[in-house]
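Supplementary Note 2. Why include the ligand at all?

Several targets in our set were suspected to adopt different conformations when bound, so apo predictions alone were not considered sufficient. For every target with a known small-molecule partner we therefore ran a joint prediction. The input for guanosine-5'-diphosphate is given below.
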Amino acid sequence: MPQQGTCTVIVGCQWGDEGKGKIVDVLAEDVDIVARYQGGANAGHTVKVGEELFVLHQIPSGILHDGKRCLLGNGVVLDIVQFFQEYDALVARGIELDGHVGVSLRAQLLLPYHRLLDQASESSAAEKIGTTGRGIGPAYEDKAGRRGVRVADLGNAERLAKRVGEARERTRRRLELLGAKGPADLDRAIDEALALGPRLLDIACDPGLEITTALRAGRRVLLEGAQGTALDLDHGTYPFVTSSNTTAAAAATGTGIGPTWIDAVVGVVKAYTTRVGEGPLPTALDPDMDEKVRQLGGEFGATTGRPRRCGWFDSVITRYASQVNGLTGVAVTKLDVLDTLPELKVATAYKLPDGCVTESFPADTWSLSAVEPVYETLPGWLAPTGNVRRLADLPRNARAYLDRIEELTRAPVQWVSVGVKRSQIIPVG
Ligand code: GDP
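The joint prediction is reproduced in token form.
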């Protein structure tokens, strides 16, 4: 296959919230198309442009650059109401969206009953997953169960009414089983969502065709993932994961292109580790340090405001991410957050309860709560890095820290982010 353009995947390498939005925003400047390949409105990217802060949930952050085409692939579940709220809010802030945003005809719709089911099943579950309660899990369940409603279905009123009618009935039965009540206005909420159908059909498209045509014409494409590797449905800390494949291979399935079109995979790695929701975090900090790093890094969820748990850099997970995603490079974010810490720990391996030491990420999620990280300690740099724009100008200890991350992760560091602003980025090499 002739490879004329370039196709890069951006993927999170920890538990999400690595700062992918910022890296996509920076890299989007040099591309023509940015496409999202999975997830729903449970993901939130926070991007600062000049003095303005944007929180994007469904529309790719590439939209904050003029003239880019931003696509939502078949792998996403689209909350139609929230999507248009986000769309209209961006238009109101002067962002040009007309003709710049497209949604796959094959994308699944997330409708009001999915949200209801999500909240009802999470509150009745003995073991909580820590979902955002936005209906993402039930929407993907409907997709796998072949009961879902896709964007293309909006074009056929009869088929749409039948599929939604069946879903309504199923929802009623499920809620009854879960001992939850359906709100009286569910029908109205569904009708309101579906009333946006014609508007969605107006921007519906075939991203696979569009992207491959663009690549053949020599254009540059970014494929953007949501969440992170440890939240991947297959490769993450199951069952405390999201309900889609977040890893790089899903960028092909989730947009409708062949994997041979992808020529680079950039892993976004935070300079420390965070986790929101339930499930083990092996390098978790002690409570005082946890609070300190959370405040320094502003570690509160973009979608829910939930505080994130913080931990030392864990190379077991980033090395695993390097393997699972086939990373060709790494973007390290939030280095500046560590500027004031006198020393930093990095986990190089895990000691298992039986005393064995492993450098590999265990498949048994529960064993992860019993592992003891093997740390090495590096000196901090105790100097501000936010104004640094060249690698050579970073303090020596900061460079040594990055070198160690690179070595342990087994992928070259290509960018270092030292602040929320677009300009606060250091290209490496
Ligand atoms: P995403 O979903 O992976 O894009 O991550 P989030 O947007 O949820 O979280 C990243 C947060 O870190 C956002 O508030 C960003 O503005 C912020 N951020 C990104 N890169 C940097 C950085 O290099 N330094 C600092 N201090 N903040 C950053």
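The chain has 13 helices and 20 strands. The chain has a mean pLDDT of 92. Comparable summaries for the other entries are listed in the accompanying table.
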